[in-house]
Amino acid sequence: MKGKVFRHGYGLLVGLLLQVLVVTAVGAQPLVQTGVSPLETPAAPAAIVVTHVEPRTMLNTSGAMLSIYGSGFTAQCVARLVGYGMLPTTVVNATALTAQVPAGVPSGVYALEVSDGATLFRLDNALTVTAPAPTPAPTAAPQPPPPGRPILTISNYSVEPASVRAGQEFVVNIAIYNNGSRAGENTMIVFPGTTFLPVGEPGHKLGQVHINHTVVVTQKLRAPASLSSGVQQIHVNLSANDWEGNHYDYAQTVPVEVTGVAPVTGQPKVTIESTTTEPPVLLPGAPFTLTLRLANRGSRTARNVFARCTSETAIPALGSDAVSTPQIAIEDAVTVTLPLLLDAAASGGRQRLDLFLAYEDPGGGIYTNQETIGVNVNASLTFQPQVLIGGYHTAPDFVQPGDPFTLTVEIANVGGGDAERLILALGGENGAALEPFSPLQTGNVIFVERLSGGATATVQWQLLADGAAQAKAYNLPLALAYDDAQGGRHSDTQRLSLLVRRRPEVQAIFYREPGELTAGAPTAVSLEVLNVGSRAVNITRLEATGDRLDIQAEGTPFMGPVESGGAAPLDVTITPRTSGPAEIVIHVTYRDDFNQPQTLTTTLTVNVAGGPGGPPSVPPGGGEEGSGNHAFPPLEGIEGGKLTFWQRAVQILKGFLGFGS
Q1: 640 exposed, middle or buried (CB, 10 Å; 0-12, 13-18, 19+)?
Q2: Which alpha helices (DSSP H) does 26-66 contain, by range?
Q3: What's residue 411's pLDDT?
Q4: Is residue 146 assigned to a domain?
Q5: Mean of all residue pLDDT scores within the chain
Q6: 455 shares a domain with 316
Q7: Which band of pLDDT confidence, cut at 50, 70 and 90, is reported for residue 294?
Q8: What is the pLDDT of residues 108-129, one digit of tens each?
Q9: Cβ-count burial of 297 within 10 angstroms (0-12 exposed, 13-18 middle, 19+ buried)?
Q10: Domain finish residue from 130, 164, 188
Q11: Considering the chain, what percentage of its residues have pLDDT values greater than 90?
């Protein structure tokens, strides 16, 4: 009984171990998946299988493109170097992948995994990455190159049409086959055009050509008209690299049978027989149409005839500056037109235009010649705008440092055409030359929409002169830019001169208050003109006038420089004609910073009493001394309203001693 129990337990243990081994062998998957009926088997994705990888070795100093072959590949497949990471993968088809291995991968032997998210296949020892071998010692024997290389050959070709005629085009189809033991990297085929001329791009990039793979290249060629009949060779240059970067060239030839043509003598000759322009007289900046009559005076037909204007004074108005015609027969002529635009700076009179002609003969020969024609240009202002500065002034006329002023400029269009979108920039286009003036409440640029021919316009700038501006003439540029009726842009810079002067500050006072004057009675009055400014004043003349006063200067008025804080005396005799308040106007003439005479005026007010027999005049304040207006008693010894010499001397002495004047 114990033996049976022991054998039964031993059998259970052996069955359990077998089940564990089976589960492990199938990837530790449960025999029955959750949620799936045992009677229903889910559709499993196709298993991924990797058969081999090319190349199997690479240097870590440069990247390599791996070619992975197998089956079951889908668009979700990604290749991974175990121990390095994912690789950029491209699915070629269900049996081939490409994966880019970057430079810098550490040296070692790597396994390769390919997975589509559902299944995974691992290929051990798939890629060996090595570091560059150290430079061998001079005595070491050179290492033999690694075995294998790409070998590119032409396996097949065809020509359409089969019979190639000289002077005609044909197409060649060439099959390139890699017969080597390595894939060709950066494979290229070039038709150098030694015998036949390539039409279009002569080179073709084929990229990677795998072992035992074929690539077909199509190239259009032209057989020169000079080829003789017989078999000619199409030269084909093949080149490729291997994955190690070694370069290989393979020069190939393909025979083609050519049927030549009999030589033809003579050549075409195209000339410009006549020209016309519309309008007949051209205007600078205006479009015009040039009509050419081209005649073939040669002995062969001219084909693909091109005419082009090469003068800098004329540019295309529409499209290109060249015109073409398919052919011109012998002794035939055709008419072509060129839409052009004359340069806005073109000179008037009879001007030349250069034309370039190019054409071919039926055999492919190319001919060129340069022609010159004449056109009439009217560059007068009859049809063109011309804007000038007609005049300008400032308000006030006297510009002083630190003072605001208004600059008024009158602009005139002296041309016959309208000036449109006129821009006036004071101080130049960017205003850099505006100093020492600054615009107030606006910028330095003024816009005028249109100024008709012969019309004028007035523009104003509110400006402020810098307080530190020196007294001199400032040359101020005014940049003008405007369009003509054809849209041509004209620009010009004209200049204004603004004078900055420093006006002296003077003040007139009584040397001693004269008090109240008497109508009809002459009174000697001593005045002083004070320089209350910060700079000296060079006085050239002092004069006093009055509307109801007869004023006569005594002696020679002061002339000369008066420093800051100084005074210039002026002695006059005043005889009032009527009573009441009267004004004494003192005129100070001086030389300004430009050595020009200028005049300032300052005014004093006096009170005039009635004549003899009239009521006495009492000054305000009861006539107290120091009030500023005094009622002086009549002067003694007046005869005929004038003082004698001795009386005047006594009065001056009294004034000097402080006893009155």
Answers
A1: exposed
A2: none
A3: 93
A4: no
A5: 81
A6: no
A7: very high
A8: 899 999 998 888 899 888 888 8
A9: middle
A10: 130
A11: 31
Question: Quick check: helix, strand or coil at residue 228?
Answer: coil
Most confident stretch, 166-180, 369-383, 502-516: 166-180
Based on the fold, state whether residues 420 and 510 are members of the same structural domain: no
The reported pLDDT for the residue numbered 591 is: 87
Q: How far apart are alpha carbons 53 and 121 in whole angstroms?
A: 13
Q: Which of 657, 646, 652, 656 is nearest to 571 (CA)?
A: 652
CA–CA distance, 182 with 247 (Å, rounded to integer): 12
Least confident of 124-138, 423-437, 454-468, 517-531: 124-138
The DSSP bridge partners found for residue 337 are: 291
Say how many domains are in the chain: 5
55 prior amide bond cis, ω within 30: yes
Does residue 408 share a domain with residue 356?
no
**Could you tell me if 163 and 299 lie in one domain?**
no
What does the alpha-carbon distance between residue 495 and residue 464 come to, in Å, rounded to a whole number? 19
Q: Is the distance from CB of 425 to CB of 439 less than 8 angstroms?
A: no
- Retrieve residue 149's tokens: 């290389």
**Residue 334 counted as domain residue:** yes
Q: How many CB atoms lie within 10 A of CB 434?
A: 19
Within a domain: 44: no
**Residue bearing the bigger pLDDT, 69 or 264:** 69
pLDDT, residue 478, reads: 92
The sign one gets for the Cα dihedral 506, 512, 518, 520 is: negative
User: Is the predicted pLDDT of residue 277 greater than 50, yes or no?
Assistant: yes
Give me the CATH number covering residue 479: 2.60.40.10
Closest CA to 409 of 363, 462, 373, 362: 462
Sheet hosting strand 419-426, strand order edge to edge: 445-451, 419-426, 473-483, 489-499
Residue 26 pLDDT grade (very low, low, confident, very high; cuts 50, 70, 90): very low
- Both 205 and 328 in a single domain? no
Q: What's the rounded mean pLDDT across residues 515-537?
A: 86
pLDDT exceeds 80 at position 261: no
Closest CA to 306 of 330, 332, 326: 326
Query: What integer is the mean pLDDT of 375-401?
Result: 84
At 151 the three-state DSSP class reads coil
**Residue 299 per-residue DSSP state:** S
DSSP tag of 639: B
Do 300 and 368 fall within a single domain? yes
Place of tokens 């100070």: 588
**Would residue 5 count as lying in a domain?**
no
Same domain, 158 and 250: yes
Are residues 195 and 253 both part of a single domain? Answer: yes
* DSSP, res 184: E
SS3 label, residue 653: helix
The encoded tokens of residue 609 equal: 């009493």
Residues of the domain holding 427: 387-499
The mean pLDDT of 71-82, rounded to a whole number, is 90
